[in-house]
Amino acid sequence: ILMAFFKLTGLFPMRIQIFPDLNLETCGVSIFYHIILISAIVFTNLYWAAPMIQTIQQFDTVLEQIYLVLSTIVTVIIWTSYLLSRRGLITFAIKLVKADEFAKLLRLNCKFQPFTWKNVVWFILYVFAWAIFLITMPMEYNTPIPFFVFIFVYYVPTFIIVLFIMQYTLALRLIRKRMAALNSAILLHLKKMSSSQWAFTIVQVTSENVVIQDFDNWKRTHDKLYEASLIIAKFYEFTILPVMGHVCFTVIYLGFYIVSDTFENTSDHRLLGLGNDLSWLFVTIIPVFWLIFQIEGITDE
């Protein structure tokens, strides 16, 4: 489901065939899909929306202009990076499949289980925050621009940047889960080797070939996971920097509006503004915390 969603949004531009043999091919349609989106975002944000916002002579329009230009640049960088480096995702998927083939020989538990109660609660809260953000945004930002331009200015960049961070988080999660299973198997084997009850049994003598075979499978699995980690690190090493810069500026940008809405005279507008600002902030920074958690986890492994 996740792979189909990423393919639909253009962030996983490939066709995947598992049976009878593994086959991953780049999807040529995604190239035109990316180019059309890049052109639409640049045209609507810089050519159409920017002059309209500039006509409003207020201090917060400076922040609006900076956010508009920054979000456009970061979004274009994300789409361009996928155009130029899309084969890296294919290689990453192949490395994971190869690692799973060796993991099956070791009977490792590498199943991806996203549906825990904690994840379900976070998912519900996150969807609820997105709903508040989508509903209150047109009510809060009463700008003199058409609605479809409004969507490209505020909704599309936020969605693309959040989706980019979540895909990075998912890739690290896939590697971390397999690393944890591999390390657990190695530690369990070492524990058995060090136990006196097991060390002096006949099994130790008769299973040397099995131990050597397991060691080879450990090494092969580790090598494939390490290579997959290098591919992901190289794929995101540049793009993640402007994305994090955009997130930091969004926090400053929303902080200004949170303070101004807090001291708003009208109570109804105050609640509407704070609801929009806090939901937008939640939607933006929560994926960053998930990403940090996965980075710490894979570093520990």
From TrEMBL:
The chain crosses the membrane at residues 31-50, 65-85, 120-139, 145-170, 235-258, 278-295. GO terms for biological process: sensory perception of taste; signal transduction. It comes from the Eukaryota. Keywords: Cell membrane, Membrane, Receptor, Transducer, Transmembrane, Transmembrane helix. GO terms for cellular component: plasma membrane. InterPro entries: 7TM_chemorcpt (IPR013604). Its main location: membrane. It is found in: Cell membrane. It is a multi-pass membrane protein. Belongs to the insect chemoreceptor superfamily. Gustatory receptor (GR) family. Gustatory receptor which mediates acceptance or avoidance behavior, depending on its substrates. This is Gustatory receptor.
